[in-house]
Amino acid sequence: MQIASRLGLVTVVAALGAIAAGPATAAEPADGTRRPARISPAVTVSVDAVWEMEDATLVLTPAPPPPPPAPTPEEIAETRALSAAEYDNGTIPLDELCTLSFAPKHRLRCDAALALEDAYDAGMPSSRMTDSYRTLAGQVSLAGLKPELAAVPGTSQHGLGLAVDVFGPMQAWLHENGEEFGWVNPDWAKSDKYEPWHFEFDDDLLGDAS
Ligand SMILES: [Zn+2]
């Protein structure tokens, strides 16, 4: 900060009003006692003093660190997804999952939910969704009801909050466009075990841009 030139003396007009109680030339009391010296708002100091003041300023008021940037929705979803991924299949606490704005009764792992919200924002119609996250008890129950369709309890992607079962226009839209958002009808659901309504989330499909 080269503000002080070699002028010998410079005048610094400091914001010392709060300190200065009055002009330095105030008359002394008639009884001859000396008043304590006062600081005037206008002080004449040497160049060296200016440098000292600058040094002191640098030491006393270091620049505060910039505030950390607010996390993006993707970063929040990623953090919550990592937390949910620590639970065994079908045992994720519901508050570790995210609901869907267009299907508020359904819950998914938060990164999968965010990707489906992105699809919705991109024009995916919302239609009947029958399943999303499924608890282990729910999977056991389903396996009893539909043993030919339901996955072995503890192995379903529904138990990880990474699958949905959808019907109607939403199903058709996801078959057409879902991969762009990480949601696909897996190969196993296209043959013997035919489940065109079942979609799974695979974040590898999103690439590094996600
Ligand atoms: Zn399913």
Automatic annotation (TrEMBL):
Gene3D superfamilies reported for this sequence: 3.30.1380.10
Position of the signal peptide: 1-26
Keywords annotated in UniProt: Signal
Protein origin, superkingdom: Bacteria
Name of the protein: M15 family metallopeptidase
Organism per entry: Sanguibacter suaedae
